[in-house]
């Protein structure tokens, strides 16, 4: 067990270190932009006196290192500051929108991940035969469709031709759970279509790879049914690559769905970030950037850890 | 029932739902054999049909961002403009016909020299926090907008006020310079009256409007309940209203078709014809004061040569641009920033047409050395700005003018190109009065004089017209000013755009209002669910 604990601690420490490095890069990137926060706030109406006053007020005259640590300290205590554009508390705004992002990603993942794995298992079991070809054909065509095209297609199909859902997927506090589910149905469908193929193909490939092994032959010779061989013997050994692809797709569902958010008017983090980038609202951009980086690092770390745990050699050291 | 009376019933229904104008109705019903007088009376009766009360009215609008705030001073896009107009109320407002309408003010009077204005405050109007609206509140509101720190979009309007006095139910406003237009200027959408002027918290969303704000999420949604204490029974029909911010054109249109919202703004010109064929939905157009422009700095070579400017003005095909860039949803400009949507517009000024021969003649006369004339444009300068610039270049080149397009990125366009480079594409949203439009961008000393136009005669006329109370004389002065800008200025104005809205048949009371989008931002409270 000792080896595993040590590996886990190592991974978590590495993740945190990486996050720290990312925070420095984000801060440096924003610093390197022409103009500063005060100029961004005042815009064209900036007079030298007003700039000086505002810089004083925002503490921009401090050296960058001091400001970086002040910012870092704020993040650790949950104080992300206020948005420049409308003075709203950033932590509060992000909290609500992050909740919406995770809700949408969670719904899509809850459908897409099991579906992709089951389809992958079936495709591997019938590799090269018609079920494999149908599954691969359909999922590969949906992934080839750009998100917004898929989105407009499902809007047309499910709000105009068969009006069962609403085209605008806004959710807000006070809505019941089922009302929320109904509202996000269309973006969830689109996201499932987009992420399905990648995970399905990976599951299929990983299992087919394992199926070449000698112990699979043994299992077959024991007289196990083909599906039981795939499920009991091949799949557990194919988990590591599948999990890393699943995590990659989960990360995409959290940080990469701004197009889908915009098309469906879904009020989540992506749209929030884009709006504030347009207005050069730097504190918000910094904060959201860091959150996205954290999600990526955390999910990749989780994939690593699950991969380690799924490896019997690490689980049962001699 | 015979056929004619059935058709008449349909038409009356159309009028009742605001789908037919008076002229259309009278025209068609006289064709059915009615006398014009009777038709007119029928129209009046139908148009003033009792609005229906109740229900939840939803609007889906483009032009909202998660950076929005409830502070009326900072409203700069349509969603906050419409959003604020529901919970807020102004001293005065504009009617679709261009008259000043009394809201919190009950009566307006001015001194003979139009320098001192007195507003009588309506009695018994309440803010949503229960406080009564007083002359002090109005005074404090205007005062806050004059404060540089408030960053109000109405600063240019209220900074002309030199003194204010609140006495009982009267507010006396003294101006630095006389202006016959003050009530018009105070219809500006930023100037929502807030308790104590909004000094405590400008983003509180407390006002005296027809609805009470229940929930606000920037860039997402405004939700309201009817204000039971609102003073005007003709506004605020639905029990609840919701404003959803939907920036994607397709999603917005789909939401209207699916019945998720009852009205949308900014219908994409490309789909107007398609949307007209959809049952249950109608397209409503209103010619506004907004316009798209190409602006030349008259103080920089080669644009300091009026013959060259005239060559370019004759080298642009305005009708082609209205047809191709606006999809026919607009009208031609005439190189001065005023159209029929303004009071005191002179419609006798000759329309300038594309004339390659005249353009060539002026170009030759200008003695330009033949080097390329650079026009800068960007996709964000106005919708279709790049297409418009290319059309301009094509028609000018056909007349022998070496006009060349230089594309600029949207990012930084308003900082690095507009008001900096001598020739570029831009737009104006229009203003409530001619005086305000000219003072904002054509007066020698104007901050936003983006053509660097300086003309002593023009400035003199502008000042004289501002104080002139005789409307005929005033109209004459504005006409003279229009001629000066048209024939000597640096403005090339190819087109005025329209506000194009999509409205569900379930909506009653829609009026095509030229003042601003969505019935001057008040559609949700002025319309009802039939």
Question: In terms of topology, how is this protein built?
Answer:
The complex is a heterodimer of chains A (318) and B (530).
Chain A: H1 2-32, H2 37-42, H3 48-58, H4 64-76, H5 90-125, H6 130-144, H7 147-161, H8 177-211, H9 214-222, H10 226-255, H11 258-263, H12 269-278, H13 282-310, H14 312-315
Chain B: H1 3-16, H2 22-31, H3 36-47, E1 56-61, H4 78-87, E2 92-94, E3 100-102, E4 105-110, E5 116-121, H5 135-146, H6 155-158, E6 161-167, E7 170-175, H7 182-185, E8 211-217, E9 221-226, E10 240-245, H8 249-257, E11 263-264, H9 272-276, E12 281-296, H10 306-314, H11 318-324, E13 330-332, H12 356-366, E14 373-377, H13 385-398, E15 403-407, H14 413-417, E16 423-428, H15 434-441, H16 456-467, H17 471-488, E17 491-504, E18 507-508, H18 517-520, H19 523-526, E19 528-529
Parallel strand pairs in B: 1-10, 1-11, 14-15
Antiparallel strand pairs in B: 2-3, 4-5, 5-7, 6-7, 8-9, 9-10, 11-17, 12-16, 12-17, 13-17, 18-19
Helix pairs in contact in B: 1-3, 2-3, 10-12, 16-17
Task: Please provide a written account of the structure.
The complex is a heterodimer of chains A (318) and B (530). With 318 residues, chain A is an all-alpha fold. Chain A has 14 helices and no strands. Chain A has helices spanning 2-32, 37-42, 48-58, 64-76, 90-125, 130-144, 147-161, 177-211, 214-222, 226-255, 258-263, 269-278, 282-310, 312-315. In chain A, helix 7 (147-161) crosses helix 8 (177-211). The model of chain A has no long low-confidence stretch (mean pLDDT 86). Chain B contains 19 helices and 19 strands. Chain B is of the alpha+beta class and 530 residues long. The longest helix of chain B is centred in the C-terminal third of the chain and has 18 residues, at 471-488. Chain A binds chain B through residues 44-45, 83, 85-88, 93, 96, 152, 155-156, 159-160, 163, 166-168, 170, 172-174, 262-265, 267, 271-272, 275-276, 278-279, 281, and chain B through 60, 65-69, 71, 74, 151, 203, 215, 217-221, 223, 244-248, 250-252, 254-255, 257-258, 260-261, 414-415. Chain B: Residues 100-449 form the Solute-binding protein family domain.
């Amino acid at each position: 067990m000792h080896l595993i604990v040590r590996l886990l601690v190592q991974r978590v420490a590495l993740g945190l270190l990486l996050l720290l490095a990312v925070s420095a890069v984000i801060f440096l990137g924003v610093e390197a932009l022409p103009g500063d926060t005060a100029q961004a706030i005042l815009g064209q109406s900036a007079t030298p006196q007003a700039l000086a006053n505002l810089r004083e007020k925002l503490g921009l005259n401090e050296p960058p290192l001091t400001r970086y640590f002040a910012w870092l300290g704020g993040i650790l205590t949950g104080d992300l500051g206020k948005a420049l554009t409308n003075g709203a508390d950033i932590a509060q705004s992000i909290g609500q929108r992050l909740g919406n992002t995770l809700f949408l990603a969670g719904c899509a993942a809850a459908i897409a991940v099991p579906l992709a794995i089951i389809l992958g298992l079936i495709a591997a079991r019938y590799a090269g035969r018609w079920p494999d070809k149908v599954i691969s054909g359909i999922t590969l065509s949906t992934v080839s469709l750009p998100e917004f095209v898929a989105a407009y297609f499902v809007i047309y199909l499910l709000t105009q031709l068969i009006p069962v859902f609403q085209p605008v997927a806004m959710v807000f506090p006070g809505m019941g759970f089922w009302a929320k589910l109904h509202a996000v149905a269309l973006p969830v469908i689109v996201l499932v279509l987009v992420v399905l193929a990648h995970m399905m193909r990976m599951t299929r490939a990983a299992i087919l790879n394992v199926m070449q092994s000698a112990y699979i032959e043994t299992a077959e010779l024991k007289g196990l049914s083909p599906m039981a061989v795939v499920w009991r013997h091949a799949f557990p050994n194919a988990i590591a690559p599948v999990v890393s692809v699943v995590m990659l797709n989960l990360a995409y569902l959290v940080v990469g769905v701004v197009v889908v958010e915009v098309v469906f008017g879904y009020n989540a983090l992506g749209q929030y970030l884009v709006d504030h980038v347009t207005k050069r609202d730097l504190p918000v951009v910094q904060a959201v950037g860091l959150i996205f980086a954290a999600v990526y690092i955390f999910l990749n770390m989780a994939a690593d850890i699950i991969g380690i745990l799924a490896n019997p050699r690490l689980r049962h050291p001699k | 029932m015979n056929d004619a009376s059935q058709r008449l019933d349909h038409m009356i229904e159309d009028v009742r739902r605001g789908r037919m104008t008076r002229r259309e109705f009278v025209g068609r019903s006289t064709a059915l054999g009615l006398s014009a007088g009777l038709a007119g009376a029928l129209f009046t009766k139908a148009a003033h049909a009792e609005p229906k009360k109740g229900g939840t009215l939803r609007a889906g609008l483009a032009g909202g961002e998660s950076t929005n705030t409830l502070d009326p001073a900072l409203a700069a896009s349509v969603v906050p403009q419409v959003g604020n107009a529901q919970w807020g109320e102004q001293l005065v407002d504009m009617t679709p016909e261009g008259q000043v309408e009394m809201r919190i003010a009950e009566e307006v009077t001015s001194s003979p020299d139009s320098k001192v204005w007195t507003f009588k405050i309506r009695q018994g109007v309440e803010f949503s926090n229960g406080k009564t609206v007083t002359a002090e509140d109005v005074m404090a509101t205007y005062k806050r907008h004059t404060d540089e720190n408030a960053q109000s979009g109405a600063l240019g309007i209220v900074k002309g006020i030199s003194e204010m006095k609140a006495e009982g139910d009267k507010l006396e406003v003294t101006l630095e310079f006389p202006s016959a237009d003050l009530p018009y200027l105070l219809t500006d959408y930023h100037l929502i009256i807030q308790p104590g002027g909004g000094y405590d918290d400008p983003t509180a969303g407390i006002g005296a409007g027809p609805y009470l704000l229940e929930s606000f999420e920037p860039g997402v949604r405004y939700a309201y309940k009817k204000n039971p204490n609102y003073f005007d029974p003709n506004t605020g029909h639905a029990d609840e209203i919701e404003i959803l911010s939907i920036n994607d054109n397709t999603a917005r249109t789909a939401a209207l078709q699916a019945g998720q919202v009852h009205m949308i703004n900014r219908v994409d010109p490309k789909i107007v014809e398609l949307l007209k064929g959809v049952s249950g939905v109608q397209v409503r157009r209103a010619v506004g004061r907004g316009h798209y422009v190409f602006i030349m700095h008259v103080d920089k070579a080669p644009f300091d040569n009026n013959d060259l400017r005239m060559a370019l003005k004759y080298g642009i095909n305005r009708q082609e641009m209205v047809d191709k860039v606006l999809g026919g949803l607009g009208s031609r400009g005439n190189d001065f920033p005023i159209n029929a949507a303004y009071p005191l517009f002179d419609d006798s000024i000759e329309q300038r047409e594309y004339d390659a021969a005249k353009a060539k003649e002026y170009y030759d006369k200008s003695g330009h050395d033949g080097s390329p004339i650079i026009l800068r444009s960007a996709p964000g300068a106005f919708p279709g700005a790049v297409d418009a610039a290319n059309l301009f270049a094509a028609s000018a080149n056909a007349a022998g003018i070496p006009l060349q397009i230089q594309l600029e990125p949207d990012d930084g366009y308003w900082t690095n190109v507009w008001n900096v480079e001598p020739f570029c594409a831009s737009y104006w949203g229009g203003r409530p009065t001619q005086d305000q439009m000219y003072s904002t961008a054509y007066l020698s000393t104007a901050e936003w004089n983006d053509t660097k136009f300086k003309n002593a005669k023009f400035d003199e006329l502008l000042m004289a017209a501002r104080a002139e109370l005789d409307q005929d004389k005033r109209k004459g002065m504005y006409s003279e000013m229009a001629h000066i800008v048209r024939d000597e200025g640096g403005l090339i104005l190819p087109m005025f755009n329209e506000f194009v809205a999509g409205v569900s048949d379930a909506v009653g009371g829609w009026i095509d209002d030229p003042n601003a989008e969505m019935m001057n931002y008040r559609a949700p409270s002025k319309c009802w669910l039939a």
